[in-house]
Amino acid sequence: xxxxxxxxxxxxxxxxxxxxxxxxxxxxxxxxxxxxxxxxxxxxxxxxxxxxxxxxxxxxxxxxxxxxxxxxxxxxxxxxxxxxxxxxxxxxxxxxxxxxxxxxxxxxxxxxxxxxxxxxxxxxxxxxxxxxxxxxxxxxxxxxxxxxxxxxxxxxxxxxxxxxxxxxxxxxxxxxxxxxxxxxxxxxxxxxxxxxxxxxxxxxxxxxxxxxxxxxxxxxxxx
Length: 223
Known about the structure:
- It is built from five helices and twelve strands.
- It has 223 residues and is of the alpha+beta class.
- The strands form three sheets. An eight-stranded mixed beta sheet has the order 4-1-7-6-10-9-8-12.
């Protein structure tokens, strides 16, 4: 398992974004050299965990629980075939394009060591938004991406460090539950009845997903 490319984006004006700033950093491109990764700070205040990477709409993106976004090259290849056009590394706005790693099938709370120091922990899947759809310029993109339920994974930073293209990925911790990124994604998008199944992941879940799961479980108990 390796990192094929490390991708960052600059803040650019975009007519399709509803962010207050009117700019987006979704157009990620591969960068060379060592990139520092650290905890960016709380949601709503911190942006990307990668140095030099722009996160422009802090209402929905960035922060400690969405510090790094990874997507598998194998999944990009599948979308290339479906869409009938090439998709470069970074095309989905991912910070890390991986090879050989099970990203959407990773467990919530699973920890990856990348390179010599960096340790990341899986928190959730990526929820598609209007900016993503407009960036791809594909009809009904949000529905299509949601239906596929292979959203890639967000990570929090456990141990900061530097990474570069070609770094190996090592899974250093697998939690004792079966809550995958795919399950979490389905539960918070199209299959609300699955929400109680997320509870074994506990505090490793993205806080928004954990709140939803707990609230739904309480509804079931009260009914």
